[in-house]
Amino acid sequence: MDGKTSRRSGGKKNSKQAIHVVSAFAARQRLVMGQVAVGEKSNEIVAIPALLDMMAIEGAVVTIDAMGCQRDIAKKIIDKKADYILALKGNQGTLREDVELFAVEQKAKGFEDTTVSRREMVDGDHGRIETRKYTVFHDIGWLQERHAWPGLAGVVMVESIRELAAKVERETRFYITSLTAPAETVGPMIRDHWAIENSLHWVMDMVFRDDECRVRTENAPPISSRSSIWPII
Questions:
Q1: Alpha helix locations (H) across the chain?
Q2: pLDDT single digits (tens) 76-91
């Protein structure tokens, strides 16, 4: 799940905000499952539960960026008999800080004090080489006791190295998940999340020129946004 703003659908004269739509995209089937427009005085945290209520997701794995890393959202996913992988940033108190400290400490010890699974993936495209190392921490009972997160079963650390010419970029990201699956399963799922950007949002912008659309009045913006999806489906 992810949101996209139609940049020019807002208006300065009436101070109307640009329309922002949250979509549920089945990454491997390349299928839009549902959409919810975000209200002018709300955000994705409100729209995501509404979108979840629209769908039968039993057995699915829901991936959401840090905006959706909320206890209520995690609980709703679990209640609907699905699993989640949620990007972890600093919007949940000390949760990310505790996870990062633990991961760095265990990595320095060679992961000898915990149970992990690991997977490395290498991609090359347009002169760029990207190496991603996925480490899933399965022994996180201490974290669940401290934060009481609905359905929490594992923590994922993703270490990325991007090489382009003489430039090297390094990044470490963290995720929480209700899955007990190993890194060889969880890693591709995290990678698949980017399909909503590459196969949906990019297509809407580059093919259907969604960001250039100046439709602004009454119900036309959300209708225009949804109608551009149907050729993709």
A1: 44-53, 71-79, 95-108, 141-147, 183-192, 195, 202-206, 220-227
A2: 999 999 999 999 987 7
10 Å Cβ neighbour count for 9?
24
Cα-Cα-Cα-Cα dihedral sign, residues 210, 9, 54, 63: positive
R_g of the chain, CA atoms, integer Å = 19
- Residue 79 in tokens: 């209640």
**φ, ψ for residue 222 (rounded to 5)?**
-65, -35
Q: Are strands 61-64 and 83-88 parallel, antiparallel or unpaired?
A: parallel
Dihedral through CA 116, CA 92, CA 88, CA 168, nearest 10?
-110
- With beta carbons less than 8 A apart as the criterion, state whether 30 and 195 touch: yes
Confidence (pLDDT) at 156: 98
Q: Would you state the pLDDT for residue 105?
A: 95
Quote the CA–CA distance of 155 and 167 in Å, as a whole number. Answer: 30
Strands of the chain, DSSP E: 2-5, 20-26, 31-38, 61-64, 83-88, 116-125, 128-137, 154-164, 167-177
User: Residue 59 has what pLDDT?
Assistant: 96
Torsion sign over Cα 53, 56, 62, 65? negative
Q: Which residues of the chain have pLDDT under 50?
A: 41, 216, 227, 230-233
> Which single residue is written with the structure tokens 């060679």?
110
Q: Is 227 left (phi over 0), alpha (psi -120 to 50) or beta?
A: alpha
